[in-house]
Structures are given as C-alpha cells and as structure tokens.
Design a protein that fits this description.
The protein has ten helices and 23 strands. It is α/β, with parallel strands linked by helices. It has three domains: 2-61, Beta Barrel (OB fold (Dihydrolipoamide Acetyltransferase, E2P)), CATH 2.40.50.140; 86-115 and 241-402, Rossmann fold; 122-221, OB fold (Dihydrolipoamide Acetyltransferase, E2P) (Beta Barrel), CATH 2.40.50. The chain has an eight-stranded mixed sheet with strand order 7-22-23-21-20-17-18-19, with helices on both faces. Bound molecules: S-adenosylmethionine.
C-alpha cells in the first residue's frame, strides 16, 4: 500500500499528494497527514484514492459520525472538525473567486449552521431492491438504513418505504418539511405500484418519466420560514436546509435594504420564497421561474402570505429580461449550479439595476459570472452560508453595485 503526505485540499475536500510528478486525490485525508492509501481509480497524470491507515494524524481530524461515511461519498468532510469545515469553505470561496475572476472582494465570515446533522428536508434514495445511495463516482450500491444529514422524520419513514415492492422502483424522493413536519413520498417507477399499505406520508406520488401522479393525500406540503408559509409541489425546487435558508433570506433582505420605493426582480424564483420574503419592503416584485408547477406554488404562496405586490411569470429568465421596459432597482438571481448564461448577464446589464444580489450554490460559476459583471458593477462583498454541513458544497450571497 502506498504511503503519501497530504500537502493541500482540493475543492471537493480531498487531500492532495504528489509523488514523482503524479497527483493523488485522497478522500478521508487532511493537510499534513501521512496516510496509507487504497487506489480507487488510476489515470495517466493523477489517481484517486482513499486513506485507510493514518501514520500521522491532523489535529483537525474527528471520527466521522456516520457509519457509511467511507463508502457512501455523499458527505465529503465528516472527518473534519466543524470549525475546520467552515475554514475550508471560506478559503474555497476566496481562492476560487480570485483564481477565476481575478477579483479580491471582501469575503465575510461564513454563516454557520446550528445543526450540522439532520438538516436536509429532501433526499433522493437509489433503489436496488433495497434503499441506498451510489458510491461517489462508481455505480456501487450502498445499502443504508439511516442518513445522518437527513431530517429525522425521513429516517423514521425508511421502514415504511421498505413495505413497497422495491423491485420495480428506480428512485425514491422524500420531502419532509422541518418546521411543519409534513411528508411527501415520490416513487419513480414505470409500473403501477400499490401504495395503499404505506403510512406516515401526507402525500404520495408516482413519478413516471416527467409526470407526477398523485396517489394518496394532498398535492403539496407546507414549510414555514419565520412568519411565512410556503407550499411545495413535487417537482418544485425548495431550499433543502430550511434553518439555513432562513438565515440566507434574512441576509438577502438586509443586503437589499429596501425602502418601499423599489421595483425588484427575483429571477430563478422557485416557489417565490425570496420575492415573497422581501415584497412587504418593496414597491413591486416580479418573480420569474421556468418550472410552471413552481409558479403555481408561488401564486398560492402569494395568497397564503397575503402579499399582493408580487407578480409571477413562468418563463425563462432571459425571455422576461428582454421584454421588460420598466425601471428595475434591484435584481436578485439564484440560478442552478450552472450559473447564469452569457445572454442573461447581457440582459441584466442592459436593464442596469443599481444593485444586484447573486445567490450562488457553485462558486466556480459565480466567479465566471462576476468577471462579466465587473465591467459595470463593483463586487462589494460576499457572504458564504453553510447550507450543506459535512459536504464540500457552499452557498454564498454576493452584492454588486453599479458604477455611475
Ligand atoms: C437554486 S433554485 C432557486 C429557487 C429559489 N430562489 C429559492 O430560494 O427557493 C433555481 C431555480 O431556477 C429555476 N431555473 C432554472 N433555469 C431557469 C431559467 N433559465 N429561467 C428561469 N428559471 C430557471 C429552477 O427551476 C429552480 O427553481
């Protein structure tokens, strides 16, 4: 077994070691550790491996709380003290922004999580006659009976899910709202499955291709964020860590610093949650989202929360931007990991809001996009938010101000 010394961490939190010009990416290894590795994948210039024996241990190491940590690969940092995870994420944001945009903005301390376990309100289980996950980068099926980062309500329902005929099921998605405790089960299968023996869910869907067929219970489940209630359809995006999403929205609201006179665009609005959260402080809000079901939710959410100065459109973000002629003061974007496309950025530059707030779940695409905005906007500051403790993923909020 090869012995290596770890000199750095990559953006996925893997240890980096170098021997004779060859790079090794080593899971479960920390900086300065000397470890024996098991090779997982060999390429010409680099290899992927996992640390299996520790000759010199880092003081930042802890024993992972999850028994599946080494095989599952869903969590990347569970072997690292939480304070070190936060340092890793702040550093990742700093170095990626500098490397890919050339910018050196203020990076504020990360908004940490109070609960680093049992935070996810949604999970996709893979099914192979049993419930599990696929090992990272392989198709190896790992059977599990508990996922430590999932809302405990989800774990408590695993035994119920096992009553299904899993031989005909591809995937299972479970949503369990954190503050309201409603549960939705989505079963991905080509077959007509009997679900009448399953208890404990407020809503059960079968997903065939892109169609969601309601089998039992209510169409949507509810979640609460401070004084707001949001309903969520099976296909709609909703922030997976409700407690951290509240902190994220509060920070967006404080960055927006609305006076009641502003017209705000909430692009990539999902179920309308950010726009609704801010609407009472603005003159008018537009929410734009490509998924029609999410826009249906957004319109219900508008009513539930008694907000009447917000309009939602089921459109591609850029389609809306090219049509609007009204003066927009603030644009909030919260795109998927791919970030913004060039045309959308050009359209935002054209409508020239005085402020842009960019909520990002991928710092590499954020850096690329900030470089484009930088011609006309100052990147004032970035606040990272730890939405996904124990994983290498990091959310952030960036404030940009137009140069006059
Ligand atoms: C990261 S989510 C943000 C949702 C929302 N802001 C929230 O906090 O819940 C990104 C959303 O963008 C939507 N989306 C993806 N591509 C889009 C596009 N081209 N135009 C508009 N919406 C899009 C997705 O359906 C998804 O709901």
């Amino acid at each position: 077994m090869k012995e290596v010394k770890i000199c750095d961490l990559d953006f996925q939190g893997r240890g980096i070691a170098k021997i004779d010009g060859k790079v090794f990416f080593v899971r479960n290894a920390l900086i300065n550790e000397v470890v024996k590795i098991k090779l997982i994948k060999e390429n010409k210039h680099f290899s992927e491996a996992i640390a299996v024996e520790f000759l010199e241990k880092s003081s930042e190491r802890i024993t992972p709380s999850c028994k599946y940590f080494l095989e599952c690969g869903g969590c990347d940092l569970m072997h690292m003290k939480y304070e070190s995870q936060l340092d890793f994420k702040e550093n990742k944001i700093k170095t990626t922004i500098n490397k890919f945009s050339g910018l050196v903005p203020i990076i504020n301390p990360i908004i940490k999580a109070d609960n680093i376990f049992n935070y996810r309100n949604k999970i996709t289980f893979h099914i192979k006659n049993d419930i599990g996950f696929f090992e990272k980068k392989t198709n190896e099926f790992i059977k599990i009976d508990n996922c430590l980062i999932c809302n405990q309500d989800i774990n408590d329902l695993i035994s119920e899910i096992k009553k299904l005929d899993l031989s005909v099921v591809k995937n299972i998605i479970v949503r369990a709202s954190k503050k309201v405790s409603q549960k939705m089960l989505i079963i991905e299968t080509d077959q007509d499955l009997n679900v009448s023996n399953i208890n404990g869910f407020d809503s059960i869907y079968i997903k065939k291709g892109n169609d969601y067929i309601l089998k039992i219970g209510q169409e949507r489940i509810n979640e609460k964020m401070n004084n707001f209630t949001f309903c969520i359809s099976p296909s709609a995006f909703f922030q997976v860590n409700t407690e951290q999403a509240i902190k994220l929205y509060d920070k967006v609201k404080s960055y927006a610093n609305l006076t009641g006179k502003e017209t705000v665009l909430d692009l990539y609005c999902g179920t309308g949650s950010i726009g609704i959260y801010l609407a009472k402080s603005a003159k008018k809000v537009y929410g734009i989202e490509i998924n029609e079901e999410a826009i249906n939710d957004a319109n219900i959410n508008k009513k539930i929360n008694r907000v009447d100065n917000i309009c939602f459109y089921a459109l591609n973000a850029n389609q809306f931007l090219t049509k609007i002629s009204e003066k927009i003061d603030l644009v909030i974007v919260d795109p998927p990991r791919v970030g913004l496309d060039k045309k959308t950025i050009e359209s935002v530059l054209k409508i020239a809001p005085s402020k842009i707030i960019y909520v990002s779940c991928d710092v590499a695409t954020l850096a690329r996009d900030l470089k484009m905005f930088n011609e006309f906007y100052n990147v004032l500051e970035i606040t990272p938010v730890d939405m996904f403790p124990n994983t290498c993923h990091c959310e952030s909020i960036t404030v940009l101000e137009r140069r006059y």
